[in-house]
Amino acid sequence: MTGTATAGWPSNEGEDRDLASRVASGDRQAFEGLMRLHNRRLYRLARATLRDDAEAEDALQEAYLAAYHSIGRYRGDAALSTWLSRLVLNECLARLRRARRRDNIVPIRYGDAVETQGLDAMDDDKHSPDEALGRSEVRALIERRLDQLPEDFRIVFVLRSVEELSVEETARCLDIPEATVRSRHFRARSLLRESLAQDFDLAERDVFSFGGAHCDRIVAAVLSRLAAG
Fold this sequence. Notes:
Blueprint: H1 13-24, H2 28-50, H3 53-70, H4 80-102, H5 129-147, H6 151-162, H7 167-174, H8 178-204, H9 212-228
Helix pairs in contact: 1-2, 2-3, 2-4, 2-6, 3-4, 4-7, 6-8, 7-8
């Protein structure tokens, strides 16, 4: 792959081929390094596709096993990150097809018409418990809304906005035209903004909410002070 490297993903084709060769020769340490290098992004890709944490982990493990046994066939025609991403997508989409068959739903192939899953953990240690809780709740809300996006839009959004891959990198990873990446990313952002705007409109009504516990605490404190004196 040409162009500027995305942080954490090697861009040098020679480095990719060398790492793949070491893994193919049975170098388990090299394979561990490969997994650690690509783990976060490949997990996010699996999570965006499957919308389930445990399923995403299982799919990623299966994809890594497939990569280990087939990496001898890697020739460097695409970046190693792209090759791995396609293995992960293949595993995820196979799982979706099986699930749809179990549910008697006609499967829709990835890449068909547009009618056809985790964000980075924030460093809550640097914030107060209330702030950490608030950030966690916002993150969970965004993840829920991402899960509700159509599959094609969701995957493109995660690669472009969360992982910050370029249009070219995303197109190569998903094997779709760059124009399709742009249109799906634009539509995903629009849908996400609309969904979050509705949530925040509802949340505005509950700002400085005064629940039963607050009421009881104030009443009890006042009565206590009256009794004392």
